[in-house]
Amino acid sequence: MLAPSIDRPSSMTAQPALLAVRDLTVDYGGVRAVGGITLHVGRGEIVGLIGPNGAGKSSALNAISGDVPASGGTVVLNGRDVTRLAAYRRSRLGLGRTFQTAKVFEGLTVYEGLVTAVRGASGASLWQTIIGRGRRLEEEQAGERAWRMLDQAGLDHIADLFGRELSGGQRRFVDLTLALIKEPQMLVLDEPMVGVAPSLVPRLLNQLRSVAAQGTGILIVEHALEVVAALCDRVVVMAAGQVIAQGTYDEIAADTEVRRAYLS
Predict the structure, then answer these.
(1) Residue 5 confidence (pLDDT)
(2) Helix or strand or coil: residue 142?
(3) What are the residue ranges of CATH 3.40.50.300 in the chain?
(4) For the chain, how long is the longest CA-to-CA vector?
(5) d(CA 197, CA 214)
(6) Sign of the dihedral defined by the CA atoms of residues 173, 179, 180, 186, in that order
(7) Residue 134 confidence (pLDDT) above 50
(8) Is the dihedral of CA 214, 142, 164, 160 positive or negative?
(9) Which residues have CB under 8 Å from 38's CB, separation 6+?
(10) How far apart are the C-alpha atoms of 59 and 233, rounded to whole Å?
(11) The pairing of beta strand 234-239 with beta strand 242-247
(12) Strongest mean pLDDT among 14-18, 187-191, 202-206
């Protein structure tokens, strides 16, 4: 059971579509991994994307973020069709992403990694950032913002640890903080609870709720259904590359087709 400090959303409100995905398909060679799914996420809304292994969830996220090309359909971000844009261009337009494996700067301290990411968010390439050339924030500004984000995330106590020294849970918190550097309007998260100790799950969920409360939309793939129940305003269920149900957690939990998909 999750700690009672995690507040489950008490009501659902209509939200304008920040992310609108329509008839999205993803093919790998002759294999169709995603077969024409449609979903949307509103501002400040947390939507769970769940389903059994092999349902096509990660492939859908990859196409939404631009990490793999869509074979068909459309992805619209904040009113703009981004279906054919590269991942880095979608990022610049306000889409943040984390992956199943948390990404941190292994050879830098947590603080140094955040400073590097803050500078990169100003428009300089990573190489320009490292060698100190190109357009970037002043050292003092980057350092101040890095410390502010460390404090907000409750990570100031690990600021001097190198990325390679972090525990699984710490890596997840740092990974999320790095994704928030550019202040994305939309976050796409692929199994962010993997490697997180049970005692830290409530804290991570509360951080996600705080991010959503500031207007950021969140689409999250998660296998732990108790996490989905505690966190998500709505849930989209996939099976065999298709959306088979959408609704509140209670609604999809009572759906016969959803139960059949998980038990088959």
Answers:
(1) 38
(2) helix
(3) 17-102+185-263
(4) 59
(5) 26
(6) negative
(7) no
(8) negative
(9) 21, 22, 23, 24, 243
(10) 22
(11) antiparallel
(12) 187-191
- Beta strands 217-221 and 46-50 are parallel
Least confident interval from 119-133, 167-181, 201-215: 119-133
Token duo for residue 199: 């005692």
In 3D space, the residue among 77, 76, 21, 26 whose CA is nearest the CA of residue 49 turns out to be: 21
Amino acid at 122: S
CATH superfamily ID and name for 17-102+185-263: P-loop containing nucleotide triphosphate hydrolases (3.40.50.300)
Q: Which residue has the tokens 């610049």?
A: 92
pLDDT computed for residue 72 by the predictor: 97
Which pTM value belongs to this model? Answer: 0.84
Q: Note the pLDDT of residue 229.
A: 95
**Nearest-5° Cα angle at 110, 109 to 112:** 65
